[in-house]
From TrEMBL:
PANTHER family in the record: PROTEASE S28 PRO-X CARBOXYPEPTIDASE-RELATED (PTHR11010), SERINE PROTEASE 16 (PTHR11010:SF117)
Originating species: Agrilus planipennis
GO MF: dipeptidyl-peptidase activity; serine-type exopeptidase activity
Similarity section: Belongs to the peptidase S28 family.
Name of the protein: Serine protease K12H4.7 isoform X1
Length: 240
């Protein structure tokens, strides 16, 4: 599943003033075949079109220009939205957005792993071993039940059932991506020390690192339920 966790902003502007709505959007797109053509055919794109129509209806256009802007994966969404709806979106600003779709972006986590390795050579090795143990346990319902308890998932894991399996594994790796992206000098060394200084097996060390970061770990079903609708917060802007 392609999930865009960035901020996609929708900006509408008038001719003689900057007056419009900015919409914060977090949007999930179900998988199609991994090609640019089928990417654009997803019915979920309709929610973006509907959002534009809400702010700038075709039968009563309030604004002279519609701009979408985003960074990272939301930057991809902004660029694709302009290609998909050129008659509704005038400008797209895409910062660091991968434009060619594929099932995975391994280069991203390769950079994360290298950053952690520079902080502590043994840190990414521990994470790899723990992830391998988790993947093996997910092969059975019994192992999945143990992981649910160990990592405090919000709902019981479904074992090898996809996409529940992949979503859970992503939940174990994404905290390290977050800390690499936002780290100040010395932060990665401190985070690796916090992970490696935990007691127990590699998997138990990982669980003790992750559990304090959130109340419970979502399952894919909870994620899908929450993001089944586009969540938007409108902010009014005026400038004379």
């Amino acid at each position: 599943m392609w999930v865009f966790f960035g901020s996609l902003f929708l900006l509408t502007t008038g001719t003689f003033s900057v007056e419009g709505e900015i919409s914060f959007m977090r949007h999930g797109i179900p998988p199609a075949r991994e090609t640019d053509e089928t990417r654009a055919s997803s019915p979920e794109w309709g929610t973006i079109s509907q959002r534009v129509d809400h702010f700038n209806p075709a039968d009563n256009r309030m604004w002279d220009m519609v701009v979408v802007a985003g960074s990272s994966y939301a930057g991809s969404l902004a660029a694709w939205a302009r290609i998909k709806y050129p008659h509704k979106i005038d400008i797209a600003y895409s910062s660091s957005g991968p434009l060619h779709t594929k099932a995975d972006f391994p280069e991203y986590f390769a950079a994360v792993e290298e950053s952690l390795r520079l902080a502590s050579p043994t840190c990414p090795q521990l994470i790899r071993r723990a992830m391998a143990d988790a993947m093996k346990m997910l092969e059975t319902r019994e192992g999945a039940a143990t992981l649910s308890e160990l990592f405090n998932t919000c709902e019981p894991l479904k074992g090898p059932v996809e996409p529940d399996r992949s979503y859970f594994l992503t939940s174990l790796s994404s905290p390290f991506a977050d800390v690499v992206q936002t780290a100040d000098p010395g932060d990665l060394v401190a985070e690796c020390e916090r992970l490696e200084n935990n007691t127990g097996s590699d998997l138990e060390k990982l669980a003790k690192y992750i559990k304090p970061l959130q109340y419970c770990i979502w399952t894919y079903d909870l994620f899908k339920e929450y993001y089944s609708e586009t969540h938007a917060i409108g902010v009014r802007m005026r400038s004379k």
